[in-house]
Amino acid sequence: MRKFVLIVAFTILSSACSSEQKSYPYTVSVAGGPTGWPIWLEEVVINDALQVRGGVNGYGFDQTPPLGSRVVLSKPPAPAKIDARWFSYRTLDFYEASVTMPDGFKERLKEWYRQYPPSDFGHYFLLGFSGKGEVTIWWRATCLACDTADDDFLEQIISNRKANQVSGNPEGYRAQVDYFVKKGVIPAPRW
């Protein structure tokens, strides 16, 4: 009987552990743009829990991969869903997007970490938000001790997914819009 109880307890514990989300060391990088289309990233939420702030982003979206500001995380769970809200300085529009990672992403992520171990590679979850209302997502692994980028890995996960235009009050961004107009970054929008 005692042996049966131990087997049942072990089975319950092992199945409970396997349902936990796998965590990985990676850095989130947030880009805006493209050039001439700066945004204010109000909020990015990963997996309905992890919040990342982006601030002003006016570059990087049109680069391959998109490059932007970085947020280093301490072994967060594998990204499964991204929710974001941002403001386009050029059009005075607000956008929201909810993006679920494609089928098989967790398996691919596990394989990438096997092929590009964190002891030798830095891993980056690259998020791009366009002032035109688009989202692009990439994964990158960069060799930490290599002289060239020949050993690096890069894959696009989501390509220019259209976001939803939502309501919002652009008045709170007027000073920054005026600054971008004076600097010649954007044309004067219609208020």
Which structural traits does this protein have?
single chain; 3 helices; 191 residues
Walk me through this protein's architecture.
- This protein has three helices and eleven strands, in the order αβββββββαββββα.
- The protein is of the alpha+beta class.
- The chain has one domain (21-176).
- Residues 1-19 have low confidence and may be disordered.
Tell me the count of domains. 1
Derived structural class: alpha+beta
Distance between the termini: 77 Å
User: Using DSSP, what is the number of strands?
Assistant: 11
Could you tell me the radius of gyration in angstroms? 20 Å
What's the helix and strand layout?
Blueprint: H1 2-18, E1 27-31, E2 39-46, E3 50-52, E4 55-57, E5 69-72, E6 81-88, E7 93-100, H2 105-115, E8 121-129, E9 134-143, E10 153-162, E11 164-166, H3 174-182
Parallel strand pairs: 1-8
Antiparallel strand pairs: 1-5, 2-3, 2-4, 2-6, 6-7, 7-11, 8-9, 9-10
Brief write-up:
This protein has 191 residues and is of the alpha+beta class. The protein contains three helices and eleven strands; from the N terminus they run H-E-E-E-E-E-E-E-H-E-E-E-E-H. The strands form two sheets. Strands 2, 3, 4, 6, 7 and 11 form a six-stranded antiparallel beta sheet that branches. A five-stranded mixed beta sheet has the order 5-1-8-9-10, covered by helices on one side.
